[in-house]
Design goal:
365 residues, Aspartate Aminotransferase, domain 1, seven-stranded mixed sheet, homodimer, alpha/beta, Alanine-glyoxylate aminotransferase (chains A, B), 40% helix, 12 helices, pyridoxal phosphate (chains A, B)
Amino acid sequence: MLDDRLLLGPGPSNPYPEATEALTRPVLGHLDPAYLALVGEISDRLRAVFRTANELTLPVSGTGSSGMEACLASLLEPGDTIVVGVNGYFGERLVQVAMRLGAEIVRVEAPWGTPLDPGDLLAAQRAHPHAVLLAVVAAETSVGVRNDVAALGTELASTDTLLLVDAVTALGGTPLEVDAWGVDACYSASQKCLGAPPGLAPVTFGERAVARMRARSTPVSSFYLDMGLLQQYYQASPPVYHHTASSVLAASLHAGLGRLLDEGLEATWVRHERVGKALQNGLTDLGFGMVADEKARLPQLTATTLPSGKEEAPLRRRLLDGYGIEVGGGLGEFAGKAWRIGLMGHNATDRSVATVLGAIRDVLG
Amino acid sequence: MLDDRLLLGPGPSNPYPEATEALTRPVLGHLDPAYLALVGEISDRLRAVFRTANELTLPVSGTGSSGMEACLASLLEPGDTIVVGVNGYFGERLVQVAMRLGAEIVRVEAPWGTPLDPGDLLAAQRAHPHAVLLAVVAAETSVGVRNDVAALGTELASTDTLLLVDAVTALGGTPLEVDAWGVDACYSASQKCLGAPPGLAPVTFGERAVARMRARSTPVSSFYLDMGLLQQYYQASPPVYHHTASSVLAASLHAGLGRLLDEGLEATWVRHERVGKALQNGLTDLGFGMVADEKARLPQLTATTLPSGKEEAPLRRRLLDGYGIEVGGGLGEFAGKAWRIGLMGHNATDRSVATVLGAIRDVLG
């Protein structure tokens, strides 16, 4: 049996070779000047991919979910109101995390597979002008849908409501403009379109988010994910010890981001767009359906329903066991009905498309 | 300038060669049966080093601090009382994390550098019999002190108070017996005496802790660090998706634990004891002082005051820049006054002792 994997699920993707090599660089202590300099360079590279000048831009020591929680926990206080767009699993997760933090939730929904209407989100904010946050997932990994967040920031800039964007699957794969779009806070993950292994969550806070955090009247319930403490650790001089961050993961993310920026951010968007289309055309030819409408369909993550009469789990298992290819199963409403095929970062290539279509053709028989 | 490091601070230590090699094994998806099997084996190995049969034993996706928070957040509800032993920085951190979670704190103190009196801790529990937790750091990394936790569990077993032990620096370095000592919950970190890189926090919960978690009337405020959700992810069948755990770190921890168990847990205790003594004797010969009394002094982490008239920061910097050797500075009361020298896991060797003593001799001039 193959024990390596072509990772074409919803992430992790296979890291860039440079990111894998960097894993074995000498381990550095969490307060070593060389480690802090490395994080400084990671922050610079993250600013380039987030398209922001935000000072408070750094990798949180956890997976994408920890990035979501770092943002919500640092920006919300108990009793605060948050407007959340929900059209898939990760919008639902924003609701769950915010509820646990004691927030009042205003849900704005669209059917799973359909993009959120920015007008609905803004109307909900106008109905709840005291809302502290409006949160949207830019690329809903559960259904392969792109939500339009470009239009929101300008409208919210004149209100007291901050825009929080989940860019876990979006960052490095499809256009995202933190500053130009007026995004106040944004989080992502290392293991998708950034081409590094899982374990770090890039987060960026703009001035309004930093001010909101500083104006809290209650402490952040999480010590580990308090963005204010992380700022004191990574960006104060001298650094204030917070946790034993992993230079292993940092070196790898640094290398993945370097490779991405060498190619050029816009070039990677074009690459993801091209191979995603090729995959979707190939799947359609094989009788698969598309969960998302073409206009709102992501290229880096395709949610696809199987040809009628085909059971998803055994076929997915045959791809894994027989070909060493991972594709994802459906989440939530699409569990048992759909696959999620990712072409992200190092895996966003014509070779991946040819490989997975060829293997799918085989297992369909 | 040397860009590799001999890591003789309070952690990370240099990983075992097997743990470094394992970092470049093929990345696995977080729901891949091969990844879940790997975590199952890690749990088995962790049970062996924790000396427990606890079913709920797993690596949390974060550093040691995330392990501390996973335990406190999962076991405490707002308004609950916790008795905390404080004789150093990490006891203080237990207080800070518990306070943020809305707990009432009963502090039991000893001067930094002096072990906690188990009688004081038990007396505080008797005075607050409704306390949900009594928490103690087994090996206080900030001052190199061993706290006696062996005596506590038996006494607490007949009460409603659970024993939580911080074993971040203890595990794999000095004796710790989760089951025999009646420890209800315990957390550690991958990068110290376990000989793997930072990024994972082993946690174990006994039956009383699981029952306590199940009896909660409020949700755990942290989604990311909710031990109940992690149990559903790693130990339910089928696994319930929670976060994109890093197979890279898991493979490395698995290898580090394998190396440790091949040597034998008790043999590693003996090795740490021997080299720690050798270092402490050598430092004393060079005019250094010991922060902790001999009876309560840890072998794997030595807190040591510099010979009179020697400034710590420039000398520590010379060790780093000239020799590529990291030792830690003092924390809290000992900032600017002491060093913390770790001999942990792969670095607990005669070679490390000879190297660091030789380099110190050089820089003292």
